[in-house]
Amino acid sequence: MSTDLKSRIGTAWAAAWNHGDTEALDQLLAPGYVRHGRTAQTREDLKAGIAACRAALPDLRTVVDDCLVADDRAATRWHSSGTHTGPLLEVPATGRQVTVSGATFSRVENGLITEEWVTWDPRQMLQALGIITLDSGFEDGSRLEATTA
């Protein structure tokens, strides 16, 4: 199952994220699929989210950097990039290049992914859109003084 699942993950992700063919996920995600995060998402919720991302970033490309499969689990490290040319999360188009990266951890039953946990840093996206800066306190020349008691 390891090689087959890796291949199916890569194929379905490329179809959905890179080309907008979210129906390809039906061959990978179980009908009762749940994506855990701030709120639980169904397979249909995920498809709608991908469509919204692609509307805002029509040249979106997601690359599977690494995928490990063992027993009933899969871990996928990925990165995505695209140009922000449409509204995203109530932010009007900026024309800026957006790049984010993360990891997805999946549970598999009968060859289909039943649950996923996704981790990524949304601050990367907010910084790329110019909404926030991620400057450290050290970049203005200030120093953290060590004190001893």
From TrEMBL:
Kindly give the Gene3D superfamilies that the UniProt entry links to this protein.
3.10.450.50
Concerning InterPro entries, the annotation shows: Cyclase_SnoaL-like, NTF2-like_dom_sf
Q: Which Pfam families match?
A: SnoaL
Q: What is this protein called?
A: Ester cyclase
Natural source organism: Streptomyces axinellae
